[in-house]
Amino acid sequence: MNKTTKLLGVILSVAGLALTFNVNAKDDVSGGGGTTTTTTNAVVLKAIIPGVGRASPSIRGNTAVITASDQITQAQRTYVYQRTNGVWSRQAEIIPTETNINVKNRFWGRIVGDNTLVMFSFWDGITYNYVFRRTGTVWRQESSFVLSDASGNSFLGTTDDTRLMATGANTANPAVQVYVRTVSAIGVVSWIKQATLSSAKGNFDFMNFGNSLVAADTVLIPGIEKATGRGVVFSFKRTNGVWSEQSLLKPTSLLTVGAIFPWRIVLDGDTAVVGATINDLSTAKKVYVFKRTGSTWSEQGVLKDDRYLGGSLYGMNMGISGDLVVVNDSISGYDSGSGGRFSTPPSFVVFKRDATTNQWSLLQRVFANSNKYGFGTPVDISGTTILTPRFSLLTSPITQEVQAYEVTTP
Asked: Which of 59, 190, 291, 324 is packed most tightly, with the most Cβ within 10 A?
């Protein structure tokens, strides 16, 4: 029996036209099964800025953070949008205190807590990390870290009270430092080192620190099996302030030689989603879902889309919220409107987990219309709201937009 999901499109945009999107619903996790096609119109709500760089959105609850590039100055602009009674409106423009204009041009912002925003940058061998907090509707910079780091991998991830930093990258003793936020009796905020995370598994090494993440009391760190060169994910769990290493996250089937696993990691509670990119032009890209029971992670499902083989960015960007996973499904960010390089418009795909059987199914695929670039890359989800950017190559000046989609099941 077909499952049908309705996605209602909303645009945070400079454009003034409603656009049509084709929505395909399927009930097979690998892309097979019956198909239902519907059409929905997107409605423009609010301007961002004209730009030539791709907008980068993140969302948590009713707060969205969007970083975009100004077409004239090339400066990065980070905006906060707030949703009230279903309507999105701009709440603030976030600007760090850093005075170096080159650094300002290359900041990205992400919402990491209900009232916490992190801006980060790497420029000219220096890493920058700023934390902003919201009181009411006012955002203020709370803390900053500026460090020399030739690798650009010092700052790995931040929540509202925990920050990760790498040491020993590209050495025999790589480790991850965990810092926690403390507030004194007079309100002074400081970050105190809580632990150093290193693996006791001698046959494996940390690698590719930049894809590490922290969420609540869990840290996931990319790694590699020394003997085979195949990727794994390390897991650490904090209990009462003490960190302990848990089981590795490893696919049950061997990946294609040359595959990069993990390419991207997202986490919600005890469910982790890991993307893998494969250079084999005849092989479909895959996304792996892992479920934690106690201290053990096991593979729960493999999310793939056979439509895209070589050149696909499938799994390069993902988001998870509860039983929903959204995966970008773009062909190198191009589409049929950019000189006919690819015949299939970019899209994103929504997968859903059955709460009873824990089985994953491909629920929805949403396509951009043919003249939109960057659609589905990057992508983020919170609750049932999906954010993704797009911009038109066929307008002058180029218009840059972020769309908000609401997933509803009848």
From this structure: 59
| pLDDT tens sequence across 268-308 | 999 999 987 765 555 567 889 999 999 999 999 999 866 65
- Three-state secondary structure along 256-315? CCCCEEEEEEEEECCEEEEEEECCCCCCCCEEEEEEEECCEEEEEEEEECCCCCCCECCC
Number of domains in the chain: 1
Cα 257 from Cα 254, distance rounded (Å): 9
**Residue 33, CA distances (Å) to 1, 76, 198, 355 in order:** 9, 43, 45, 21
Tell me the C-alpha distance between 262 and 212, whole Å: 10
**Rounded distance, CA 297 to CA 162, Å?**
23
Other CB atoms within 10 A of residue 93 CB = 11
Tokens standing for residue 198: 């290193």
pLDDT tier at 186, thresholds 50, 70, 90: very high
Asked if the bond preceding 378 is cis, omega within 30° of 0, the reply is yes
Amino acid letter for position 359: Q
Rounded CA-CA distance 379/333 in Å is: 12
Instruction: Look at residues 91, 75, 57, 68 and name the one whose alpha carbon lies nearest to residue 398.
Output: 68
Q: Would 159 be classed as within a structural domain?
A: yes
> In whole angstroms, what is the distance from residue 120 CA to residue 108 CA?
6
DSSP state of 334: B
φ, ψ for residue 338 (rounded to 5)? -100, 65
Is residue 3 one of the residues assigned to a domain? no
CATH of the domain at 325: 2.130.10.10
Confirm if 391 and 55 have CB atoms less than 8 A apart: yes
DSSP string, 182-232: EE-TT--EEEEEEEEE----TTEEE--GGG-EEETTEEEEEEEETTT--EE
In a domain, 2, yes or no: no
Q: pLDDT band for 319, please (50, 70, 90 cuts).
A: very high
Please report, as a single letter, which amino acid is at residue 194.
Answer: Q
Hey, how many other C-beta atoms are within 10 angstroms of the C-beta on 161?
A: 16
- pTM summary value: 0.82
Is 254 part of a structural domain of the chain? yes
